[in-house]
Amino acid sequence: MQYAAPKSVQDAVELLAGEAGVAHVLAGGTDVLVQMKMGMVEPDLLVDIKHITRLKDITAEAGGFRIGAAVSGAELGEHAGVGTLWPGVVEAVELIGSTQVQGRATMAGNLCNASPAGDSVPAMAAAGAVARIAGPDGTRDCLVADIPTAPGRTSLGNGEFITSIFLPARPENASDAYLRFIPRTEMDIAVASAAVSLEFDTEGKCSAATVILGAVGPTILNVNADCLLGTTLDDAALEALAAACSATAIPIDDKRGTAEFRKDVVGVLAKRAAKIAQTRAGVTS
Amino acid sequence: MALDTEKREFKIIGTRPLRPDGIDKVTGRALYGADMVAPGMLEGKILRSPHAHARIVSIDASAALALQGVKAVVTASDFSEAKGELMQNILENCMAQDKALYHGHAVAAVAATSETIAKQALKLIKVDYEVLPHVTEIEDAVKPDAPVLRPDRRAKGAPEGTPANITNLSNFGHGDLEAGFAKADLIIERSFRTESTHQGYIEPHACLASMGPDGKADLWCCTQGHYAVRDMCASFLGMSLSQLRVTASEIGGGFGGKTVVFIEPVALALSRKAGKPVKMAMTREEVFKASGPTPSSLADIKIGMTKGGKITAAHAKLRFQGGAFPSGTIDLGAMCAFAAYDLEAVRAEGFNVMTNRPREAAYRAPGAPIGVYPVEALIDELCIELGLDPLDVRLLNAADKGTKSSYGPTFEAIGLKATLEAAKAHRHYNTPLGPNQGRGVSCGFWFNFGGSTSVSMSVNDDGTVAVTEGNPDIGGSRASVGMMAAEELGIPYENIRTIVADTNSIGFNDPTHGSRVTFSVGLATIEAARDAIKKMCTRVAKIWDIDPDAVMWEDGHARPAGENAGNYEPMSLAEIAAIASKTGGPIAGHYEVNADSAGVSFGVHLADIEVDPETGFSTVLRYTVFQDAGKAIHPAYVEGQMQGGAAQGIGWAMNEEYIYGKDGLLQNAGFLDYRIPVASDLPPIEAVILEIPNPGHPYGVRGVGETAIVPPLAAVSNAVSRAIGKRMRALPMSPPKILKVIKG
Ligand SMILES: Cc1cc2nc3c(=O)[nH]c(=O)nc-3n(C[C@H](O)[C@H](O)[C@H](O)COP(=O)(O)OP(=O)(O)OC[C@H]3O[C@@H](n4cnc5c(N)ncnc54)[C@H](O)[C@@H]3O)c2cc1C
Known about the structure:
The complex is a heterodimer of chains A (285) and B (744). Chain A is α+β, with helices and mostly antiparallel strands and 285 residues long. Helices cover 32% and strands 26% of the residues of chain A. In chain A, 50% of the residues are buried.
């Protein structure tokens, strides 16, 4: 196995594209190194992207923020601006692992690991985040929601990798929230999760709603949340949201929970996340 | 070794000095199993069965042996025939013979110059398996058409028609059940279920074995009992006991799971074959697949009660599965089930059944948590039905001095009533609960053990003392043993260093199990100190030229007594030690005993739990342990045992379980999906120590290590059931299961 620590995006792309065997990007390594230890992946090449210039930067851009692919959860959590603009995304990233894992784990790594239970993915998707991808054919942008295609699979092509993730600007009276269910309080993987991003009009009525579910299907799932529009998130609207979530979820029975349980709980999480987002948006019902 | 009759004022006992191993453990200087190295050392790895049940048709290791760096491969044929069924079972669990009996059962092992090469070599060993039908659940294993694991392991003397996988039968109790039930105002009969749990020690099994061409061997390993390791390994390798010296490393938890061998004989066999030292360490996955777990269980409990709360009759039918081998843990479960109560008519019967799962290993009060849980849960249900206070009902029925226990013997002085009264008077029990909250109560019992013990101590020239014992220190025992030596000798605790010696250095010691160390090693230490004191008094008598009986020991000094009182200047231990070579040579004390006076111990736990009615997530809000310690030598470590047992029991009740698929394969061999509680899952656990002296120990010590894991299963289950207003009758109570019961 080879380990490379290129200094530029171009070098990284060339290394990745040039490897005939199995190549893996190494960001925080909190997935890939664990998988290697367990014998689940045996890469021929690891390309460490932490030494590439600017990949550890968080920069303001068009009212939003561009977050380098090597920015760790802890670094993101300490950035005041991102947390104010997209508190739901930041809380989702900060749920990943422990203090030690936070010092390493990245959002892009969470995304590209393509686990249906990845915590930051529903929150990024609900925020309309866009991944910037470098590859042999140059640079392209792609919605975060379109990156995972199946458990462990992404839409990235050969030699491509994510250099940054862009969180867009957002209007006034808007906010987001993310909740997951785990059987313990820490160090666990989502059994079901829901990210909610809401906008409200001046009267406090919901004017836009994006609800994304995690861990209840092979990839994240987008819920039609029209039931919230025009409401102040009254009980009926929230119950309708919970029902929509349960109907959208297509979970499996496994060691982490039954399908029935996941369908139930994902609706509860969405309801509760919606209320948190509403409070954060400064809207009271 | 009775309780000292004179009431004494302790100077050191009951204080909380620093533990002597503390600095080493927090700085990383302490050497654990995997820290041992030797020049030329090889790495050993085990090939494990991918099947739940399979005949091993052939093993071809030629390709592995041809790999550069591979020095030896061993299989079952490299071991001697073990003597007796128990030893045969342990050996077969270390290395499969004609059949792989469970997913993860060892089938071969290699030693190579690096771990990477050893792992590659495993892939090159060709095992031809004939896959057999498997069975992992109790209900299935007793069916007439169930696959039979070992036809020769069926319970001896079992009645006609007993299913072939049943290996052990138990039956304890007394009195006329029928007459008892006839006196009851309410009889409830319920069924309960628990799943297998793992001890969850943080340190995986690890060892270093080195055998020379002359057949002499040394083994360093992480174990609760290195004498037991020596005896088992020597038997499996056909060695005499004197040829194998075993040294115990520091231990990162054992909880019963490290009282037996797994990799140690394999490392020795590899070392013998390769002619080099061999190190082995299990991965966490191997720990889950091949070591540990407890039995899983099914129970049918029937209890009759009067309107006033008096139990008139009680019956338990317990069914344990203890993995692929016979297991006597069912006896302990059946004996403990009703031990807390003074009952006229009681019976607990049960059996153990073989399944394609790893061989059950002891876990803290083995059998007791799952024997007691269904009983304490049913008593809670009866209390609710009859509108009675759960502590009052337990007080009314509590066993006491003179009670004929449900398993036979009559109790001596015991502390159950005092413990229940302490719980009742505690502010925890009298604090109101909020919505969705419930409070659970449970009693628990454990026998405690004494066993074979050897201690020696030498008085150094400078007046310090070296204490040598043979029990790996799991819970602070070097501190407690040092304290007892210091107390008895009358010298400062800091002047004592206690070490755990290897198997060649002092006499035999049973493992650190059965909550025996502070009791037995403590008792032997006190007696060894008295032996040394006697010798010192004799030396001083010589110097003073008076009768040895006329010299007494007080506060670390020899003093003239009786008619000589005041005639001579007292001599301190240090003064006596300094001139020892002139008065007859080195001074040492020792004591060897098979201690049979361990006092039983009872505990009562209170748990407050809140359940989220929409998700089934439960939070332990408050938890208090009340337990009789006899005499708490080092109260901080007694509290630590009480808290640790409670934490493990809470995990058992809430989320821990072995999960097998229909394919018979273990699905959660790791800490991600085998959920022990993390720190944030637990509230501060308050420990209330009661001291009802054990009449069988000079200071009154009872074992405390195990009792604390017995009550939590029912305390938590009763709290959850009261919080949701419905009865939970299966463990673990993971959120999906709770939500299902809430939704009815
Ligand atoms: C103890 C522990 C607890 C954990 N808890 C959680 C949790 O609570 N929630 C959760 O969601 N996850 C959890 N994880 C998983 C993991 O920490 C996260 O998925 C993390 O975000 C991965 O980021 P990373 O930078 O470490 O990824 P890496 O391990 O470096 O990479 C993960 C995968 O993505 C690929 N990759 C990484 N970066 C890029 C890129 N820029 N472009 C293309 N491909 C890339 C890698 O090749 C690899 O296949 C936990 C892991 C551990 C060890």
